Amino acid sequence: MAISSAAWLLFSSFLFLSHGVLQLQASHHLYRDIKASSSPPAFQPYRTSYHFQPPKNWINDPNGPMIYKGVYHLLYQYNPKGAVWGNIVWAHSTSTDLVNWTPHVPAIYPSQPSDINGCWSGSTTILPSGKPVILYTGVNPQNQQVQNLATPKNLSDPYLTQWVKSTKNPLMAPTIANQINASSFRDPTTAWLGPDRIWRVLIGSKRNRRGLAILYRSKDFVHWTKSQHPLHSATDTGMWECPDFFPVRINANIGVDTSVIGPHVKHVLKLSLDDTKHDYYTVGTYNLNKDIYVPDKGQVDSDSGLRYDYGKFYASKTFFDTAKNRRILWGWINESSSVEDDIKKGWSGVMAIPRSIWLDKSGKQLVQWPISELERLRENQVNLPNQVLKGGLAIEVSGVTSAQADVEISFRTIELQNAEKLDPSWTNPQALCSQKGASVKGRLGPFGLLALASKGLQEQTAVFFRIFKGQDKYVVLMCSDQSRSSLNNGNDKTTYGAFLDVNPSRDELSLRSLIDHSIVESFGGEGKACITARVYPTLAIQNEAHLHVFNNGTENVQITRFSAWSMKKAIIT
Ligand code: DQQ
């Protein structure tokens, strides 16, 4: 877990109100002595060039993303006063291409009793009239979490710079009667409209250790009634932050509006598990008659389930892009550096590249791919010829700005039958990647990329595959090994891993890595598994960063495709 994210995690102080019924538990660490931040230092080797980040200060969850009148909106949790969590407002930027961004004044900030102690996460819903409305969590004077409504002041303004809060706020609140845990009641989803013309929305919560997606219904978006039962819940998963619930088309990689239901869609429920700080999801069925969601057989509803990203990626949210009929996923990449280092550099947190997201043809998992607009930043393409990469060899790629690049590579395995046997106890991919890092020789693998590598390879972030012979099929492991990413040992260098549902006897093994100074955001198997790493090299910075293709297995592999591009800087002000 990130050192800095750990710092703003739960700290356990309980406050009992009303005969102990309304239980309050502080859920975020407050840095009370934070002063207004000064200018960040000029030398900034870790600032990204094409991932979204504001000029300074702390950011966390993406909030209420949408497209309105052809303009994309990104709102996000922001501390205007410093590089640690606190004083949270909804900062606001807009874009016409999801790559270049212009800032606006904060859209939502504490101004009424129902949000005076913080404007936390929430979502936008586009009403049938085309009007966008925001539901968000406010923290009231008693530090209870409640749900509020805000609407645009001027609908003819495509930038939606001013928002008006409902005088009816809060619209949903914990009470003694509803028994909602007042310190674990937050992050409303985009609402969806049933064929019965009733709106539904989910709020993340927990009861003891049971995670809950509390369901509310409304006819007018203002008066909301809590359903008797949650849409879904699961034992021993802890607080469900930032739920996201949306339909995905079966057998088509186009997105659909959040209110769509029918036999041509499945539903996805994503939960950000506060305990582990990872985003998990299941694919399942939404039963509208019972208003419940049932994950499909085989879908795991807990910490060991499917993740959007097996590295740093949290509190994500999707929206339906009506301009291009796609569903887009935004996620927050938190730091792996210490809080002290974050304060020194004057900022913390970056957004992942927005990803198109759709249901895999297996129907069992999602596929994610960077939005195609990102490719407009590519320049100076470098290709490597199709060739055999012998076991034990590495090739340095020259001609690209290796600290700011987009790399695509595909491999074909030659002697698959020589793969090592998978021990049946190796069920945890992250543990397996940690045990078998990039420097541990295998047979088929490790092979992949050494990103952000220093000249003598003292520093490197390795993203690679290993293939094992399982009981009745080959098993592909994808790893991101940060253990040698920096000579600075004050960073979290946890290695990440995922099993990749690709059959190497039939398919090539593809990898795309977006390298951006302190980020290596990787997509394996054409987007079937994603791993994002935060790294802070001390030598492999700017023009001193190198890129290699490597094979540290004993078996040869074939490179069937290699293209790398230098990436231009996005205009993000
Ligand atoms: N961040 C917000 C909460 C949410 C958490 C506060 C998730 O609303 O639960 O900044 O990162």
How is this structure best summarized?
This protein has 573 residues and is mostly beta strands.
Note the main attributes of this structure:
mainly beta, binds 2,5-dideoxy-2,5-imino-D-mannitol, 573 residues, seven-stranded mixed beta sheet, single chain
Shape: globular
Number of helices in the DSSP assignment: 3
Number of strands: 41
Report the uncertain regions.
1-24
What small molecules are bound in this structure?
2,5-dideoxy-2,5-imino-D-mannitol
Q: Summarize the main sheet.
A: 7 strands, antiparallel
Strand content: 35-45%
Radius of gyration: 23 Å
Mean pLDDT: 94
Explain what the structure shows.
By secondary structure, the chain is mostly beta strands. The protein is 3% helix and 44% strand. The strands form eight sheets. Strands 28, 29, 31, 37, 38, 39 and 41 form a seven-stranded antiparallel β-sheet that branches. Strands 30, 32, 33, 34, 35, 36 and 40 form a seven-stranded mixed β-sheet that branches. Strands 11, 12, 13, 14, 15 and 16 form a six-stranded antiparallel β-sheet that branches. A hairpin with a 2-residue loop joins strand 3 and strand 4. The chain is globular, with a radius of gyration of 23 Å. The N terminus is likely disordered. The structure holds 2,5-dideoxy-2,5-imino-D-mannitol.
